Amino acid sequence: AIFFSVCVTATVVSGRKVKAMSHVPVLQLEKLTNSVCTNLYFYISEYSSTNCTNYFWSNDYKVSSDPSAVQVKCQTAGSVTLEVGPSRHRQLIMLVAEHYKPHEEISYGLLQPGGKYVKLSTLASVKYTVWTAQLSDEGIPYKWTKATNVPLYKGPSSIHKNYDIKVTFNGNFSNVFTNVINAIFTWDSFGDDDLCFEIVHFCREIPLYNEYIWPTTKPNVTIENLNLDEECELTVMGAYGNTKFQYETPSCAEHKECVLNNLKPQEPKNVSLHA
Amino acid sequence: AIFFSVCVTATVVSGRKVKAMSHVPVLQLEKLTNSVCTNLYFYISEYSSTNCTNYFWSNDYKVSSDPSAVQVKCQTAGSVTLEVGPSRHRQLIMLVAEHYKPHEEISYGLLQPGGKYVKLSTLASVKYTVWTAQLSDEGIPYKWTKATNVPLYKGPSSIHKNYDIKVTFNGNFSNVFTNVINAIFTWDSFGDDDLCFEIVHFCREIPLYNEYIWPTTKPNVTIENLNLDEECELTVMGAYGNTKFQYETPSCAEHKECVLNNLKPQEPKNVSLHA
Amino acid sequence: KRGNIKVEEYNQAIPDPPCSCEYKKGFINLGENVFPSNIETINCSTNQQQSCPPPYICKESIYEIKILRKRKSMAEKSLARPTDLEIGWVAESLPISVGCICTRDYVI
Amino acid sequence: KRGNIKVEEYNQAIPDPPCSCEYKKGFINLGENVFPSNIETINCSTNQQQSCPPPYICKESIYEIKILRKRKSMAEKSLARPTDLEIGWVAESLPISVGCICTRDYVI
Question: Are A49 and B27 an interchain contact pair (Cβ–Cβ within 8 Å)?
Fold first, then answer.
C-alpha cells in the first residue's frame, strides 16, 4: 500500500535538484524540511505546514553565476557570517557539508524580507557550500541557487591589535535618579577581515549586556539606560582579539540642572557607629 | 522524475498503520521520524540513520489488548509519567494528540532495554493516546501498539498534606574537613495518585540540587557529600503540595574520632580590630 | 545557634566580622518550561540586624542570571543565544538575590 | 576616586561600612556552544583590604549557576533539564563568584 502524502512529495520533486544534493543523506534533507516548515510558524501568520512539507523540494535549482550574490563576511571556529543580496521575499540560506553524522543537521537561517546578514554555525575543518532559496508565502523554496563555497577557517589572527574605542553620551542629565543616559561607542575596523564583533558591557550597578555586531566597516553600538556617576566597562571582541575599554558616565556635578535638582534640604541622620 | 530514496519509504509503508495515524499531519510524523533517527545516534554505537529514516513506518500496528502494558502513573499540568512493561529491546513510547499546530511535536521518549518509566511533556486540555513500539538495532520500530488513553489532567489536588520526611545519615565522621556524609531521606506516599515527586536540596555551604523521583510507593532519595555541622533543607514536591524539611547534619562534637582528629595545637593569631 | 561557618568551635575562636548579615537560603520553582527550573536564592533574615547597626542595613545583593523559556510567539524578544538552539526557546535575564550584605540605608 | 555608590556626594555623607570590600566586575566568555555564553563575575580587588582588617579578609562569595552545553556523547551525565529540550544539550552547574565579602581568614 502507498503512504499517500509522502509519495506525492516524491513524484513531483525534480530529479535535477537531487543530483546536486545526492550526497546529502535523506535524514539531513528531511530534518531541514521539518525544521524550516516548523519554524515558519513563528515567521508567517496563518500558516499551514502541510504544503511546506509536501512541496519543499519541488522546485528546480541552478548554479549561481553571480559570485557577489552571497559573500562570506566573517568566520570564527564555530560560525560563519554571510551577506546575502536583500530580497523582497523571505529567504532560506543554508550550508551543505560534504558529509554528515546522524546527529548533525544542515545549518540554515531564515531571513525576513529585506534581511541582509545571517550567522550560521559550522564545525571546524568541514568544507561547506552555501545554498540559497526564496520562500513562497507557504514556505516553499524556489529559485534554489548553489552559491559560493565557504573557505576552511584559518584560525584566529595571530597578531593582536587594540581597537581604538571612543564614547559619546546623550540623554537626560537633569536628575541623578531618573537619568536615561545613552552611551554611543565607535571603534575602527582593521579591514575586510575584521567586520564582525561581539560586545560585552556592564557597570557597577548595571548587569552584563551582550550583543553580536553584524558586518560593518564602521562598527558602533549604543548602550541605553545608564545612570550618572557610574563606572562601566565595554569589551569589544573582534578578529584581532579583545579590547577592554573602562570609562565613567558623566557626573551629576558637571551638569548645572542635575546639581540644582539635587540641592534638596539635607536632614542630618543621627550617625552612630559601633564596631 | 522520482526522488528515489524518499519514494522507497513510501511504497513499503503499510497502509494499515496510516489509518490509525491518518489524522496526524505529515509534518509531525516526519518530525518524529527525524528526531528518533537522530537521537538514536546517542543511544546506539555504530548506527546508520538511513535505514531508520527509510523504514521507520514500514511495520504493522495492532491495538493493545493488555491494558496493563502501559499505565499512567502521574500527571502534572505539563507532563505525564508512564510505566511501561520492561522489554529486552529498546522501546519508543509516544503521545499522539488529536490535533497539532505546525510548531508542535509528537512527544516521545526512548527507553533503553529494561527501562520502565518515561516522562513525556503534554499540553493542558489536549487528549492523548499512548503508542509504543520496540526498536530494532537499526532503530526501526516494530510491534507498533496503540495502548491506553491519557485522561485529561484534573488539576493539582485541592487538599494540602504534609509529607512526613525522615532522615538518617551514614558516611565517614572521622574528620571535620574530609567528611563524606550521606543523608538518606524517606517519606510516605498518600496513595496511587501520589507516586511521583520532585526534590530540591541545599545547605548553607552546599549549592542547590534538584532531582525527579520516578513512581514509587516508598519514596526516598540519598543526598551525598554533605559535611558535618551543616544546616540544610530538603523540599519534597508531590501531588499533595510542597513540604519543607529543615535539618542539621551530625556535629563533629558528637563523634569521638572527629573531636580527637581536630585537637590540633592552637597557635593564637594577633587579633587586632579597628573600625 | 550553631556557628554558620562550620569550624568556628574548633580552632579559631574569632567573632563574626562587625557587619555580617544573617541570611536564609530558599529557591524559586519556575516550572517545567523553563531552564533552569529551580533557582537558589538568598534572603536577609531581617533587614535591621544587630551586627549591622544603623545607618547601615542588611540588603539583598542582586545578580542577573540568564534563563531559557519556551517561546509563545515570534513577538517575544530574545537575548543573545547560541545559533544552534531551536527557535522555540527564548533567552531572558532574571534578577535574583545571591547574598545579604551590610550597606548604607538609602531613603530614596 | 569616585564614590562607588552614586549618591554619596549629594545627600548622605556616610562613610563606607567598617568591613566593606572593594571589588571589580569581569566576565567569562564560554563560547558559542554554551548558554549563556558570557557570564558576569565579581572579583575582590585584593584579598587584604584596608576596610576589612585581619583577622578578616575579603573573599569571593561563590554561587552555582546552571548552564547548557552541546552534548558530545551519551556518556556525558546531565543535570535535570526540561523534558522538551533536545537531547543534544547537556545541563551542568558552574560555580562563579558573585560578590566580595569581608569574612574570617581561615588557614586551612
Answer: yes
